[in-house]
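Sequence, structure tokens reproduced for reference:
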Amino acid sequence: MANIVKKYIEKAPENYEAFYYEWKNDTTDMKYGGKHNGYVGDGYNHSSQNPIMQDDFQNMEHKWLYSVKLYGTADEITNKEREILKLNEARTNSKWYNLHNGGTAYDVSKNQQIKFICDSIKNGEWLQSDELNESQIQKLLNGGIQVRINASNPKFTKKIETLIDDKGDTSNTKPLVLVQNKDDIAKLINGNTTGQATLDSKHGKKLKYQVIPYKIVKTFLTNDFRGLGLALNPPPKIPTSPTTVPDAVAYVMEGFRDNKRPVRDNSNMEYLRDNLYFDSKKIKSVFKEAEAQIKGGHAAITTPITRYSQKAHKYKLKNRAEELEKLLDKTKVFKYSSNMIRYGDICRQFMINDKRTKSSKIPKFSNVVLLIHFPSHEASLDWDAKRSKIDGDTLKSLCSKYGLLFSGFEYMDKF
């Protein structure tokens, strides 16, 4: 029996099927790692078939340290044993007694390899000296490795397209990421959106790219490639709420009120572009909204427009609609933003109402009112200039087809 001079046993959970242990020969500085299906203290020592360890284990002059490090299911510990032994290459390591590196119960996520690849990509380890032209980009898009459930978001593609055109080239985009297979063919695994945005843009002609060598991914299965592709686009580690267009409008308007700085002053343009990283379309939205606020006679108001679509204010919209329905006989009040009236939903309600009888649980309405709220100063001006007449005429026409009266619009307070 071994001369055990020290034991270190991690606290065990209430239920476990197996544990991972290590023997260390303090005399020779050699180790043995193994897995046992059972419980600590059940009489089990080790299962090494190495004759050197067997001899050393019986030699009372050798001092041994015993430790139990991990607990879990039989499959979990099988995989952990494999992970630890493989990491140390115990099978060929002169400091280990193990004759092999163990086997796996199932394929585990290749977390360390994926992290290594992501870090290498971030550091530009495999950046190529040439660039991809438009025909090469199109070919890669047609034959890439699909890792996402949904296709690229058109709005995000448009955003990158705008960034490219604002800059005049693709230097402010990330390089495409390709992965090489055993036949020396490189396939796209990351950058579909950037590639498509480049093709859609006016000024995007070429793209930089990186190629992950085959030797790095030669053991990867389909699931590992999906994991890698997703890990190349993680959400922010520390989430932040980015500055919005309304936030930027408040900044521009404050400068206009307090410092008489013109809305479209070049310093405002530079601030939005260089400090907030707004693209040209966002900058245009900021300026148009600020100018609409001034034109609408609200330049001195610092309170933002009440956004009734937000959870904090929705109840006000609901309460006002209920008040109107109580005040007006047989009236149905529809609640909409001035720039998002859903006529399909209104027509469905009209058809349902048309089929109601005197015995219906919900009484039939004969009058219609639209309760309108404004998402922005620009939307308010647009409503006054054209939308109110267009939507008013449309509602009158729809109501007449169902024998209903359209009483007009009611408006929520802007502030």
